[in-house]
Design goal:
By secondary structure, the chain is an alpha/beta fold. It folds into 2 domains: about 250 residues, Aldolase class I (TIM Barrel), CATH 3.20.20; about 70 residues. The chain has 15 helices and 11 strands. Strands 3-4-6-7-8-9-10-11 form an 8-stranded parallel β-barrel, surrounded by 6 helices.
């Protein structure tokens, strides 16, 4: 049985970073967790945020678009730079370069399931080569003077759910926290995340590093259940936050009061989305900033369930200028009586 009550009275630390009880982390997501979105999530209560994942090989080759992913603002702290790659030496070298951007933590991605990463032996692909995975952790821990953490999955497939053993091995290599997504690589993002093995890892008396649970946390009620039922030290929120940075405020309020936060007017949430778009335009340029923001516009629950919205949605996702996009966004409230 997980001693949740005892857990609740203690705070969690990664290195020298101390967190209040029930910490919520923003998961690293490609084309999603850019500086403007991270800042928005932080404003709404995320206790720690992660960059998009950064290719170690591209970083040591000085690829400009990859180096841009290291852009960090003080308002985001504590902030984590996440790296992925296939071989210990290049990842260790990339970690040293990433450390120059002064993140609070370096995280290693052993969980990305997409073919172009895992199929080439990076991300979740390393779940098929555990000796090399552990070599990478050791090499990076040795290369940098800031905490190194790991994010991974339950295993490669249904027949190879190795996380309970792997967690101890990762801890022994010097990682200072472990985030676990409750799916195997073969599941990709389908089916339901299985938190039972995450709970088993957390409840293992030999595990003393923080265990962060991840997968399918899209409501305040589910977040509380994950803390209470599985005893995790932190909950990481990924897809549930896309186009919805205010999810952190909703969950924090529920954890504190046991009640759901009252919904605010449509215009309030729209202004948050528009602000993220504006910051992306400042960070990149008008065209790239808008393109980069489309993932949030497409996934935001703000536009879900609006009747006869298809054509407006298409226009919104095709807009190429800030003026055109904001004109469409500003017309939605009036046109659909929101």
């Amino acid at each position: 049985m997980i001693h949740v009550e005892h857990y609740k009275d203690s705070s969690m630390k990664i290195g020298n970073i101390e967190f209040d009880k029930y910490p919520l982390f923003l998961a690293p997501m490609e084309d999603v967790t850019d500086p403007s979105f991270r800042a928005a999530c932080k404003k709404f209560g995320a206790d720690m945020v992660y960059t998009e994942f950064v290719s170690a090989d591209a970083l040591i080759r000085n690829v400009e678009s990859t180096e841009r992913k290291l852009d960090i603002n003080e308002e985001e702290r504590p902030v984590v730079i996440q790296l992925y790659g296939r071989e210990p030496e290049p990842i260790a070298e990339a970690a040293q370069k990433a450390a120059e951007a002064k993140p609070d933590i370096i995280d290693l991605n052993f969980g990305c399931p997409v073919k172009k990463v895992a199929g080439k032996g990076g991300g979740a692909g390393l779940l098929k080569d555990i000796p090399k995975l552990l070599e990478i952790v050791k090499a990076v821990v040795k290369a940098v003077n800031i905490p190194v953490t790991v994010k991974t999955r339950l295993g490669w497939d249904e027949n190879n759910k190795i996380i309970t053993t792997l967690a101890e091995q990762i801890q022994d290599c010097g990682a200072q926290a472990l985030a676990i997504h409750g799916r195997t690589r073969s599941q990709m993002y389908t089916g339901e995340a299985d938190w039972t093995l995450i709970g088993e890892v957390k409840n293992n008396p030999r595990i003393h590093i923080p265990i962060i649970g991840n997968g399918d946390v899209t409501t305040p009620e589910r977040a509380k259940e994950c803390f209470d039922k599985y005893g995790v030290d932190a909950v990481m929120i990924g897809r549930g936050s896309i186009g919805r940075p205010w999810i952190f405020e909703e969950i924090k309020y529920y954890l504190k009061t046991g009640e759901l936060l009252e919904k605010k007017p449509f215009a309030y949430y729209l202004s948050i989305i528009k602000n993220c778009v504006e910051k992306n335009i400042e960070w990149l340029d008008e065209q790239r900033g808008i393109t980069h923001s489309r993932r949030h516009l497409a996934a935001s629950p703000l536009f879900k369930g609006i009747d006869n919205f298809k054509q407006t949605r298409i226009a919104m996702l095709r807009a190429n200028t800030k003026e055109e996009l904001f004109s469409i966004l500003d017309s939605i409230e009036k046109e659909y009586n929101l």
